[in-house]
Amino acid sequence: MFLIEVILLIYFSYVSAYSFILSSAGLLLYKMPSFKKGNVRNNIAVFIPAYKEDAVILGVTQAALTQNYPKDLYTVIVIADSLKTETLEQLKKLNALTIEVSFEKSTKVRALNKAMQLLPVSYDYAIILDADNIMESDFLDKMNSLALQGFKAIQGNRSPKNENTSIALLDGLSETINNFIYRQGTVSLGMSSSLNGSGMFFDYKILKKTLSEMDSIGGFDRELELKLIEQEVKVFYAKNIIVLDEKVQDSKVFENQRKRWISSQFIYLRKYLGKGLKELIKGNFTYFNSAVLRNIQLPRLLNLGFLLLVTTLSWVFKEVFNFSPWLWTALFLSNILAMVFAVPKKYYSFKLLKAVWSLPMVFIKMFFILFKLKGANSEFLHTPHHAPPDSSKNA
After folding, report:
1. Distance between CA 85 and CA 82 in Å, rounded?
2. Does a structural domain hold residue 197?
3. Residue numbers in the chain where pLDDT is lower than 70
């Protein structure tokens, strides 16, 4: 029993300290560079990989074409994989470039690599979106401003597009906390922000070279981040550059998405653990953080649920536990405080209180996902998206 307690204490002390330190740094130390209007406008490629995204791709493409940025200096490029013929025909009527691709096993990395190979021209910078993402109107202009200040890789702020179900609300809240801790907090301490898979901005040549060396199936953003750090390119998190992202609306899609994410997390932990430790010895803490410290943790909800369980048991069975229940309580409260720092005031509402009642069921689902990870990263698990109610009017 004593050994089990020690292992649990070491793990939860690490998890609690990691979250609390990064959340505090995000709250107290984060600084967003000012947006400076200049005469220089870079040529930007906006990539939208679209695998079976007929429901949303037309509206997203139209929205991407309305940026407050010179029209001749950015190109919206839809990478069409397994789209319907009628969707392709409508896409070709828009002022965007459609590149059709087909693979035995479709992945975002393969789609992006193929598109870059086929493009007859090069660009200064590139943006990668998901097929459901809507950029704020000055997204490109703000990214260009940061590029002129020397940033080579930037993660934008993916904010929830929808909160129409309890699952969607909790999904959006989870991403908001991740943005604050793993992105805002991390860059506040001089390290590289975690990438989010979309809403990302890169130096075009660096991105093209880096992706050409990759063939990731799931979690390509984790590997991309590490390969950028190897080139001494840190990812900056731009809190004030917003892209709207659709949150999952039902539990089955949520399970599949989390299964893919957790599987890729542990796969890349295993793949880069050795190198992460070597880089730590060399003094490269940024690489060690991205390769090991962030990936060695269970998902936050599982951590919180397990820690609550241990804390409760420590009070009920005081005579059995070797460590004071006050110690477990302190660890639990530090986790809660880290999340309080990260959650914006707008979330504190009756809707959140209602959604919290579904947390035990979500915890149980995520717990059982841990036993279903085998093979989850061997094929691309597509997350379906839904057209907004008025999308047909816009298309």
Report:
1. 9
2. yes
3. 375-395
- What lies within 8 Å, CB to CB, of 124 at 6+ separation is 42, 43, 44, 147, 203, 204
Q: Under DSSP, is residue 147 helix (H, G, I), strand (E, B) or coil?
A: helix
Distance CA 327, CA 13 (A): 10
Task: For residues 240 and 315, state if they share a domain.
Answer: no
Q: In 10 A of CB 43, how many CB atoms?
A: 16
| 209 token code pair | 């070279």
Is residue 253 within 8 A of residue 383, CB to CB? The reply is: yes
Note whether 213 and 113 are same-domain residues: yes
**106 and 237 both lie in a single domain:** yes
Cα of 79 vs its chain's centroid, Å = 20
CA distance 246 to 201: 19
Question: What pLDDT is recorded for position 342?
Answer: 95
Residue 151 carries which side chain, given as an amino acid letter?
F
What pLDDT does 247 receive?
87
- What tokens does 188 get? 């506040």
Residues 315 and 311: their CA atoms lie apart, in Å, by 7
102 in the same domain as 202: yes
Reduced to 3 states (helix: H, G, I; strand: E, B; else coil), residue 378 is: coil
Residue 5 CB coordination number (10 Å): 16
Q: By 3-state DSSP, what share of the chain in percent is helix, strand and coil, each rounded to 5? A: 55, 10, 35
Tens of pLDDT, residue by residue over 171-224, are 899 999 999 999 999 999 999 999 999 999 999 999 999 999 999 887 899 999
Give the tens place of pLDDT for each residue, 97-113: 999 999 988 899 999 99
Contacts of 149 (CB under 8 A, 6+ apart): 33, 36
In a domain, residue 391? The reply is no
Q: Clarify whether residues 61 and 162 are in a common domain.
A: yes
